[in-house]
Design goal:
By secondary structure, this protein is mostly helical. It has 2 domains: 167 residues, no CATH class; 120 residues, no CATH class. The protein is built from 14 helices and 7 strands. β6 and β7 form a beta hairpin. The relative contact order is 0.10. The structure holds zinc ion. The site of zinc ion (ZN) has 8 residues, from β5 and α11.
């Protein structure tokens, strides 16, 4: 049974345009392998409990992490292509949305919006679902996939990406359970670079989830058709000073607000209102809408134990914020 699925995985139909795809991905498009690897990571995290695999935002993020780690800078992957098309390889069947009456036309799906409009997700065969649920057989499928679709020079990087994904997820869960300062992760010097990746990715996951992908300062929430989000996870007291990843030392901020916050042009008052530096009003090139945010309530997580910590905000107002 396992052998049969390994063969199926090796026979995925992929774009084999040699001009477009590099030897690192064996001259093939890596979309389908990346979706399957992302799903395997989610199995390992224990977040897949139902037989229907939903095209969740988290899955898109994991897919994008693989893409950004392995593929050349500046290229973008879109999970809306491979997700429905894996049905043509006999990997799974799409489950139409109850409200969607027509037959699903796979060729017409190019965006996550459209994908979610037509289907709730995809369903594996019972046997394959069991093989993916068990750690030993899941690892065998994962190795088969990586060995077949990636050159030996980057196989270790693909494997590491998966390991970081799993550890970062665990780290984000820890951050969301702790009430005290979270600075205990990865003190060993041996795995320095991996520890940093796990911390960054785990902190980001916890913060962005708490803030529902919304910028705490300006309220913007924007997702591209590929599922890229405009927000980043910002530390209120920088990591290098605080070594503190607890959610109360973080906020999700769009790129402009993140930059403005780090530069001291924006801050947050005791009453959780946006503060804008006077310097912004005298700087002609600064977007005018930033001024309109002054004194507006910031966007906060639902659970008040995750709101930005008063002592962290006080530090930022005192040490970073440029008042005049
Ligand atoms: Zn913003």
């Amino acid at each position: 049974m396992l052998e049969e699925f390994i063969q199926k995985l090796k026979n995925l139909r992929t774009d084999k345009n040699r001009k477009k795809w590099s030897p690192l991905t064996c001259y093939q498009a890596p979309h389908k392998p990346f979706v399957l690897l992302s799903i395997m990571d989610h199995f390992a995290q224990g977040v897949i409990t139902k037989k229907i695999i939903e095209p969740t935002f988290d899955l898109v993020e994991t897919f994008n992490i693989y893409w950004q780690t392995i593929m050349p800078l500046g290229t973008k992957g879109n999970m809306a292509y491979p997700f429905p098309r894996l049905q043509n390889d006999g990997i799974w069947r799409l489950i139409p949305n109850p409200g969607f009456k027509d037959r699903i036309n796979i060729a017409s799906i190019f965006s996550m919006k459209k994908l979610r409009e037509v289907c709730v997700g995809a369903r594996f065969d019972d046997e394959l679902f069991i093989l993916l649920s068990k750690p030993e057989t899941r690892e065998q499928l994962r190795f088969a996939l990586i060995n077949h679709y990636f050159d030996k020079d980057i196989r270790a990087a693909v494997l590491e990406c998966g390991n970081v994904n799993i550890k970062a997820y665990e780290y984000s869960r820890t951050l969301l359970m702790l009430n005290e300062k979270a600075n205990s992760y990865g003190n060993d010097t041996e795995n320095k670079s991996q520890n940093k990746k796990v911390r960054d990715q785990g902190f980001r996951k916890a913060i962005v989830t708490l803030y529902e992908h919304r910028c705490a300062l300006c309220g913007i929430r924007m997702l591209t058709p590929e599922g890229h989000t405009v927000v980043e996870a910002a530390h209120i007291i920088a990591w290098r000073e605080s070594h503190d990843d607890s959610p109360t030392n973080g906020m999700s901020l769009c790129r402009l607000c993140h930059w403005s916050f780090d530069e001291g042009l924006m801050s947050v008052s005791k009453n959780y209102e946006v503060m804008v530096s006077k310097r912004v009003s005298t700087e002609k090139n600064f977007p005018g809408h930033v001024l309109t945010l002054s004194d507006r309530a910031i966007f906060k997580p639902e659970d008040n134990s995750f709101w930005p910590g008063q002592e962290n905000l006080e530090w930022h107002r005192g040490k970073k914020f440029i008042r005049s």
